[in-house]
Amino acid sequence: MATESGTHGYRTEHGEDFGRTYFRQLGDFAVSSIGIGTYLGDPTDAVDEDYYDAITTAVEGGINMVDTAINYRCQRSERVVGEALADADVDRDAVFVSTKGGFVPFDGERPDEPGKYVKREFVDTGLVDSDDLVRGSHCLAPDYIDDQLDRSLDNLGLDTIDCYYVHNPETQLYSNSHEEVYDRLEATFARLEERAAAGDIRHYGVATWNAFRVPESHDDYLSLREVVSRARSAAKAAENTRTHFRVIQLPFNVVMADAFTVESQDGPDGKQSALRFAHEAGLNVVTSASIAQGDLAAEMPEEVAEQLAGETTAQRAINFARSAPGVTSSLVGASTSEHVQENLDAGRFDPMGANAFDAVFE
């Protein structure tokens, strides 16, 4: 697992290569403000090889935040992360590794009949109760998450996962009320608190798409205040002295800045943005879709681009995401070493200051 000494040693080794505040604090750890994501790509050996090279380049070059999920590329992304970390010339305790559970994963390749596969492998075996399965693909039941966490540990070849996310819990709202979803989250958080106490995970959180950045009237909305409250209750139920709920993940980029602009969360003095709430609650924020899954690598609003440092459009987009107040790290999907190098080079520029960032929205 990542350690304080390992990650701070990594920062000491690489810090002078990068700009101001490139490394930031996540609990006791020093983590790069640019992370590598592993979502995109076909589930093939060729893509595995590219990811292996990309991840190795990243962790050896100054990125020590690695993000994946069990359902990404039919479990192949987790497996190649594990292989790359084992072989890279970097100590395991220097790298912060996150994965996610919630979506039912395929194994190695997409089956011809996904519905039949899910029924055979998950429902008929008793691993998933059909009443807990939403849209035929999503489950948050504690026993199921337990199983998925074990599979992720095996896929990654790790004894401890640094952050385990409950993946897109808002998916449950397609079939359940908000109160039911909060109850399900609390039950799963209690199980994750137990796994944290056992040393299988260091922290946990929620990785979302819409939940925290949309208005309260939106069908996918979840209250961050309520989620935090349920995590605290879960810690108490597990007899832990403090909650291990530490991180939220949400999309943030130039064209999806809702986490900063939409005041949908209940703060002590009224409505506030998800980023502000998270900061005041002591939560770390990791952003996904930092270059809009590649769209911002080609073009971004000129009036914003001219205020950002970077030699390429992609670098300027990355530096926008990691300039947002309260953001710890911005994930960028990269399946080639060339893209990783471009992302690393983005970190050699300073992010925007708070006043300059605010001015973008005036």
UniProtKB/TrEMBL annotation:
SUPFAM superfamilies: NAD(P)-linked oxidoreductase. InterPro entries: AKR2_Oxidoreductase, NAD(P)_OxRdtase_dom_sf, NADP_OxRdtase_dom. Residues 34-358 form the NADP-dependent oxidoreductase domain. Pfam families: Aldo_ket_red (PF00248). Transmembrane segments: none annotated. It comes from the Archaea. This is Aldo/keto reductase.
